[in-house]
Amino acid sequence: MPVVRTEVDIDDTPLDHVWTVLCDFEAHAGYMDDVLGIRFLERGEGTALSSWRVLLNGSELTWDERDVFTPMRRIDFDQTEGDLEVFRGFWELVETPTGVRVVLEIEFDIGIPSLAAVLDPIGIQAIESNSRSMLAAIRDRRPAPVSP
Questions:
Q1: Across 43-58, average pLDDT
Q2: For residues 91 and 21, what is the distance between their CA atoms, to the nearest angstrom?
Q3: Exposed, middle or buried: residue 134 (CB in 10 Å: 0-12, 13-18, 19+)?
Q4: What percent of the chain has pLDDT over 90?
């Protein structure tokens, strides 16, 4: 199965701020161009079930996913139902000397084995583009500067 890994460095921004922005799924549609809507269907201690609607290469893709939020600033997700056969991965925050690195890794299977050689490269390109756009939007949600 193809795996797409994208990352962005966010300088001069506290890890806790980036974590708060990342975990607020329902707000993502307000500032991420490709996200049409996300809502929580269930929430528990460190877990959630969320429903996603995004534009991927101009087409709407929908899925529900089980999300596991860890104290290590990582969110593992796995599609429970949706448009793809497999859609899973993780978001991870890593402290750097200058700020925070946000990593998004996605493994997917379109579910049409006879067309995988043709569709997988298209899917990789679309997911990479979408992921870069989402990460850039998170990067741009920096906290307002504090005046002296």
A1: 93
A2: 12
A3: buried
A4: 76
User: Between helices 116-139 and 15-23, what is the axis angle to 10°?
Assistant: 130
What is the Cα Rg of the chain in Å?
A: 16
CA–CA separation, 99 and 12 (whole Å)? 5
Contacts for 7 with CB less than 8 Å, ≥ 6 apart = 101, 102, 103, 104, 135
Name the residue with higher pLDDT: 32 or 144: 32
| Measured CA angle at 13 (ends 24, 106), to 5 deg | 50
Spell out the SS3 assignment of the chain: CCEEEEEEEEECCCHHHHHHHHHCHHHHHHCCCCEEEEEEEEECCCEEEEEEEEEECCEEEEEEEEEEEECCCEEEEEEEEECCCEEEEEEEEEEECCEEEEEEEEEEECCCHHHHHHHHHHHHHHHHHHHHHHHHHHHCCCCCCCCC
Query: Counting every residue, how long is the chain?
Result: 148
